[in-house]
Amino acid sequence: MIEITCNDRLGKKVRVKCNPDDTVGDLKKLIAAQTGTKWDKIVLKKWYTTFKDHIQLQDYEIHDGMNLELYYQ
């Protein structure tokens, strides 16, 4: 299990536990459950890289303790 921190820069900071073989779409669903937003309105970014839903976290080299930026469409 890894723990990822997502910050939307508007006051919400969410810590989510997931597996490295989960997809980004699965991570969005876990974040949506904690924030109360729809999972398909969430966009995850790290600098200028936008993460796509069907790719696994380990393929993006997302590891334990990593911080991601949380945007809403």
Key descriptive features of the protein:
single chain; 73 residues; alpha+beta; Ubiquitin-like (UB roll); ubl conjugation pathway
Shape: globular
Looking at CATH, which topology would you report?
Answer: Ubiquitin-like (UB roll)
Q: What is the strand arrangement across the widest sheet?
A: 2-1-5-3-4
The CATH architecture comes to Roll
Q: Give a count of the beta strands, DSSP E runs of length 2 or more.
A: 5
Report the span from N to C terminus: 28 Å
Catalogue the unreliable spans.
none
Q: What would your notes on this structure say?
A:
InterPro entries: Hub1/Ubl5 (IPR039732), Ubiquitin-like_dom (IPR000626), Ubiquitin-like_domsf (IPR029071). This is Ubiquitin-like protein 5. Residues 2-73 form the Ubiquitin-like domain. One of its GO terms (cellular component) is cytoplasm. It is a single chain. The chain has one helix spanning 24-35; strands spanning 2-7, 13-18, 42-46, 49-50, 67-72. The longest helix has 12 residues, at 24-35. The chain has a single domain (2-72), classed as Phosphatidylinositol 3-kinase Catalytic Subunit, Chain A, domain 1 (Ubiquitin-like (UB roll), Roll), CATH 3.10.20. A hairpin with a 2-residue loop joins strand 3 and strand 4. It has a five-stranded mixed sheet, covered by helices on one side. It is built from one helix and five strands, in the order E-E-H-E-E-E. With 73 residues, the protein is of the alpha+beta class.
Summarize the structure.
The protein is an alpha+beta fold and 73 residues long.
